[in-house]
Amino acid sequence: MSFDPSLSSISAMYKTSEPVLAADPGAGQSLETRVMNALSNMSAGFEAQRADIANVTANFDVTDVGSAVELQTKLADYGIGVQFVATVARKTVGAVEALLR
């Protein structure tokens, strides 16, 4: 009885991972450029969410439970996203400060 290496979870893991291609977005860009692009994209996304929340708030019907749930969901998603970005920014600053010491 011989061992079939294709059944190994380790070899399966290596077979399923895709290589990084030079044509990937951000390839050849500096880390600073990638970070600035990511921040500008997140800022635009948050602004779109804020405008959507303002629109839902302007058209809010207190007698409609569905609109209340929609508003609550949008506010929660927005808050979680902002908290996530703040946490990542704080941890990034901490990492850069540690590298500069």
Description of the molecule:
This protein is mainly α and 101 residues long. The chain has a domain at 46-101. The chain is 71% helix and 0% strand. The chain is built from 3 helices and no strands. Helix 2 packs antiparallel against helix 3. It is elongated. The N and C termini lie far apart (58 Å). The mean pLDDT is 81. InterPro entries: T3SS_SctI-like.
Notable features of this structure?
101 residues, mainly alpha
Tally of DSSP β-strands: 0
Taken in chain order, the helices and strands follow as HHH
**What is the molecular shape?**
elongated
Q: How does the major sheet shape up?
A: none
Poorly predicted runs of 5 or more residues: none
Distance between the amino and carboxyl termini: 58 Å
InterPro entries: T3SS_SctI-like
Quick summary:
InterPro entries: T3SS_SctI-like. With 101 residues, the chain is mainly alpha-helical.
Helices and strands, with pairings:
Layout: H1 9-16, H2 31-58, H3 65-100
